[in-house]
């Protein structure tokens, strides 16, 4: 039964008792009112009318006696006597109209017979005698009226006494009814109070005991004790409250178990993350240092390659000049072709020098490719850039020396051509070939210069990329340090969370769940 139904039952029971007591009281009040009404209408009023009738009869007798001794105004006296007789009849008639018991009716008939006899034998003749002035007859009737009135007085007194007896009986019955009503009301009130008190005590116990248990459970949960076993078989509102508390306790138990397990996992994982971040920070700092060294080596290599490119440009310019000089010499060599045979050896040396220049260009290309590979690898292998730079510098010097030799030979050839101008008329075609070869050398040196410029641009891009990598690596190192600090802070927060969650008391089976969770999720710790 729900609390609502219990309260409704108690209210209905109290209302029933109040209605019953009120209805019984109303019935008794109605009876009392009817009794009072009967006493007044049937007894008090009747006594008054009987008293009026008796008084009127006495007054009639008094008037008759007065007329016997009074000689004056017989007509007025007769009228007065008649009036008292009529008033007696009227008051008696009003009495006979009231509610009469059987005994009253018997006495009323006796009184009525006595009144009729008194009127017929005494008063009617007396009125006539008074009106006729017959004093002797009036005197005789007055004396006889006393005896006749005595016959009337006895049933009339009995009738009055009966009214008093009936009134007394009704009073006694009213007192008995009042006593009965009083005791029944007291009994009903006592029974109502007892029943209400018993029902109230039962209702209070049925509500307060589960509520006190619910309050105890709520205080235990508020203090972190989740070990209570909440049992409730009641289906009322308090039972529903205990059911809700049981569900809340189970939900909190699951949540706290998961939070405790998760906080332990977070603490362990954050510790390992912090250690890993410290190791990564150290490695990142080493990598940043290596990148700084690589950037320094690349700067030196860039400077060397720029110098080689400048030397190649200078050699190209000199080759251009040599080509111009050779072209001019070709025009003059037409007259000294015969003498050119003496400088074939010099031409052969020129060819060798040209071969050396070609070899230098080829090796420079190879070295440029090696420099690109070395730049891609970077790291500890950055030292190879110094070797490559040295080789490029040596090749550039050899190219410069070859160019000088070419200039010397060409100068020597010009002098010999001047000396043997008469002999070189037949050597014009050969000189044209030499001019063409010098042009080829110039083109090759130009290609070398262009390649050197491309190498310089590539190395500058590599240097810029390495600088960016150095900057990014330093930023990564700073971020790794921040991550390590955050992981350490997370570990501290997880430890604090474990301490906070540790204030909750869990059942034994719930306390093993975090370990089972950690064993079931080892990947979270790696």
From TrEMBL:
<keyword id="KW-0472">Membrane</keyword>
<keyword id="KW-0488">Methylation</keyword>
<dbReference type="InterPro" id="IPR003660">
    <property type="entry name" value="HAMP_dom"/>
</dbReference>
<keyword id="KW-0807">Transducer</keyword>
<dbReference type="InterPro" id="IPR024478">
    <property type="entry name" value="HlyB_4HB_MCP"/>
</dbReference>
<dbReference type="Pfam" id="PF00672">
    <property type="entry name" value="HAMP"/>
</dbReference>
<comment type="similarity">
    <text>Belongs to the methyl-accepting chemotaxis (MCP) protein family.</text>
</comment>
<feature type="domain" description="Methyl-accepting transducer">
    <location>
        <begin position="262"/>
        <end position="491"/>
    </location>
</feature>
<dbReference type="GO" id="GO:0006935">
    <property type="term" value="P:chemotaxis"/>
</dbReference>
<dbReference type="InterPro" id="IPR004089">
    <property type="entry name" value="MCPsignal_dom"/>
</dbReference>
<dbReference type="GO" id="GO:0005886">
    <property type="term" value="C:plasma membrane"/>
</dbReference>
<dbReference type="InterPro" id="IPR004090">
    <property type="entry name" value="Chemotax_Me-accpt_rcpt"/>
</dbReference>
<dbReference type="Pfam" id="PF12729">
    <property type="entry name" value="4HB_MCP_1"/>
</dbReference>
<dbReference type="GO" id="GO:0004888">
    <property type="term" value="F:transmembrane signaling receptor activity"/>
</dbReference>
<keyword id="KW-0812">Transmembrane</keyword>
<feature type="transmembrane region" description="Helical">
    <location>
        <begin position="182"/>
        <end position="204"/>
    </location>
</feature>
<keyword id="KW-1133">Transmembrane helix</keyword>
<dbReference type="GO" id="GO:0007165">
    <property type="term" value="P:signal transduction"/>
</dbReference>
<protein>
    <submittedName>
        <fullName>HAMP domain-containing protein</fullName>
    </submittedName>
</protein>
<dbReference type="InterPro" id="IPR051310">
    <property type="entry name" value="MCP_chemotaxis"/>
</dbReference>
<feature type="domain" description="HAMP">
    <location>
        <begin position="205"/>
        <end position="257"/>
    </location>
</feature>
<dbReference type="Pfam" id="PF00015">
    <property type="entry name" value="MCPsignal"/>
</dbReference>
């Amino acid at each position: 039964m729900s609390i609502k139904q219990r309260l409704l039952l108690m209210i209905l029971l109290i209302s029933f008792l109040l209605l019953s007591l009120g209805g019984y009281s109303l019935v008794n009040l109605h009876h009392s009112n009817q009794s009072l009404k009967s006493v007044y209408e049937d007894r008090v009023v009747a006594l008054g009318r009987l008293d009026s009738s008796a008084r009127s009869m006495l007054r009639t007798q008094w008037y008759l006696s007065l007329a016997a001794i009074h000689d004056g105004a017989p007509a007025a006296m007769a009228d007065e006597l008649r009036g008292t007789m009529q008033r007696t009849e009227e008051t008696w008639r009003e009495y006979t109209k009231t509610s009469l018991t059987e005994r009253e009716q018997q006495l009323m008939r006796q009184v009525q017979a006595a009144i009729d006899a008194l009127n017929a034998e005494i008063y009617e003749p007396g009125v006539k005698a008074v009106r006729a002035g017959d004093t002797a007859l009036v005197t005789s009737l007055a004396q006889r009226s006393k005896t006749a009135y005595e016959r009337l007085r006895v049933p009339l007194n009995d009738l009055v006494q009966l009214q008093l007896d009936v009134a007394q009986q009704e009073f006694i019955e009213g007192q008995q009814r009042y006593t009965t009503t009083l005791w029944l009301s007291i009994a009903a009130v006592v029974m109502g109070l007892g029943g209400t008190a018993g029902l109230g005590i039962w209702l209070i116990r049925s509500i307060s005991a589960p509520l006190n248990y619910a309050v105890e459970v709520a205080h235990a949960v508020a203090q972190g004790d989740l070990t209570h076993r909440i049992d409730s078989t009641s289906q009322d509102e308090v039972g529903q409250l205990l059911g809700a508390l049981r569900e809340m306790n189970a939900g909190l138990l699951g949540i706290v178990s998961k939070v405790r397990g998760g906080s332990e996992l977070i603490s362990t994982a954050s510790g390992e993350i912090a250690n890993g971040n410290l190791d990564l920070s150290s490695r990142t700092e080493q990598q940043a240092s290596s990148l700084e060294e690589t950037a320094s080596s690349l700067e030196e290599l860039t400077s060397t390659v720029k110098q080689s490119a400048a030397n190649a440009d200078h050699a190209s310019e000199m080759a251009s000049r040599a080509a111009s000089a050779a072209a001019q010499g070709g025009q003059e060599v037409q007259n000294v072709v015969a003498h050119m045979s003496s400088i074939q050896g010099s031409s052969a040396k020129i060819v060798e020098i040209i071969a050396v220049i070609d070899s230098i260009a080829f090796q420079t290309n190879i070295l440029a490719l090696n420099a690109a590979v070395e730049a891609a690898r970077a790291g500890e292998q950055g030292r190879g850039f110094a070797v490559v730079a040295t080789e490029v510098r040596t090749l550039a010097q050899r190219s410069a020396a070859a160019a000088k030799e070419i200039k010397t030979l060409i100068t020597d050839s010009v002098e010999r051509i001047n000396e043997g101008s008469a002999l070189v008329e037949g050597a014009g075609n050969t000189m044209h070939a030499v001019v063409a070869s010098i042009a080829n050398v110039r083109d090759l040196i130009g290609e070398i210069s262009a390649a050197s410029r491309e190498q310089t641009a590539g190395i500058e891009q590599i240097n810029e990329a390495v600088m960016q990598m150095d900057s990014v690596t330093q930023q990564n190192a700073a971020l790794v340090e921040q991550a390590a600090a955050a992981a350490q802070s997370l570990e501290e927060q997880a430890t604090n969370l474990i301490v906070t969650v540790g204030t909750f008391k869990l059942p034994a089976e719930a306390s093993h769940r975090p370990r089972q969770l950690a064993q079931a999720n080892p990947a979270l710790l790696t």
